[in-house]
Amino acid sequence: MRNTERYRVSGANSLWHVYKTVPFWKVVKNFVIIQLARYTPFIGVKNWLYRTFLRMDVGNQTAFALMVMLDIMFPERISVGKNTVIGYNTTILAHEYLIKEYRLGDVKIGSEVMIGANSTILPGITIGDGAIVSAGTVVHKDVSPGTFVGGNPMRVIYTKEEMDKRIQQDDFFQSNE
Question: What domain of life does the UniProt record list for this protein's source (predicted)?
Answer without folding.
Answer: Bacteria
